[in-house]
Structure prediction request, 430 residues.
Amino acid sequence: MGPSEGIERFDSPGKGRGMRALRHFALGELLFTCPAYTCVLTTNERGNHCDHCFNRKEGLSKCGKCKLAFYCNVECQKGDWPMHKLECSAMCAYGEKWNPSETVRLTARILAKQKTCKERTPSERFLTVKEFESHFSKLDNEKKELIQNDIAALHHFYSKNLHYSDNASLEFLFAQVNCNGFTIEDEELSHLGSAIFPDVALMNHSCCPNVIVTYRGTVAEVRAVQEINPGDEVFTSYIDLLYPTADRNDRLKDSYFFSCDCRECSTKEKDAAKLETRKLNDPPNPKDVRDMVKYARGVVEEFRRAKHFKSPSELLEMCELSMEKMGTLFAETNVYMLHMTYQAMGICLYMQDWEGALKYGEKIIQPYRKHYSPYSLNVASMWLKLGRLYMGLEKTTSGIKALKKALAIMEIAHGPDHPYIAEIKKEMEQ
Prediction:
């Protein structure tokens, strides 16, 4: 029985359509794979990864015309041409002013594919793109305005190569993409691009997921991170599970228009540890804790906006000041402290301050292991970053130890034969 034969689409009580297991799946076992219906490489990774297969390699060949798309070989270039031709001449014409968002680029490719491909694709064995939920009627004015901006950009950058449906159909399609698009990430969870994986989109959300989605190039792979029995619904997670129940459900309502009723959300059993306060002589006043949580949520949002216009040193100072303030009440294991510590680590990596990045990373890893599930990609990527930092700073023993911890998780989440596993083993040998 091959992957995908052990699962089926079904009507999930209270959730609409979903996916369930028809047989037992062991920990780490592959349930199914799904090639991307269509995908776009992020502009920051041009030249590092092939635009067609997302393979990471040196010496990629440029598109002879626009010089902005890169490929492994002639086969990849030919494979990508039906999609790249939507952009190639516009890239040449606009030069540096060619800047549609990834959502616009992805939507343009869906429109082009739907024009030429009338049959059900290998990505749509259980769910078709046309069946995607849009939640358009639930969007607020701000979200509808953003969609109008995307439609304007689509017309601006793609008018020569695409013939569009009416405005209402485009609004609906953009809303579908916003709800059902996926971010492809590498082994350190760095952003590689955006894609549509219809069969993966069939799975419902749980904050206690029993599968994990990883990527092999532009193919999504879904593996069990818990034992799954025949008749069990297959659940993935739509969001980062670090945060407390209220934050997770705010995010789910904002992006996907539902609240989660999984075991974790019903019991809130991890919330106390996630919101841990410092050990003080007198227990903190509940109002002070609520006020600090409000401050923390505000600073997370403020930092997200500040990334677009502040310098790295200003952002690092913002992290330090917020951690100092939160640290008067919150323990270092508190998830809001961890959020800002992780941002500080990212800034240090960007600035190539390896010692600084290591200092922050060492504060993060043990709390991550406590808050996340055993086979979390967030924990694996943190061990990997630490391992690579140790190795770069010639702390080889610590480096090997950290890389082994990353591998132990990745061999379950990515599968033992994934190219990332081979790369990390090679790093350890050197």
About this structure: The longest helix spans residues 286-306.
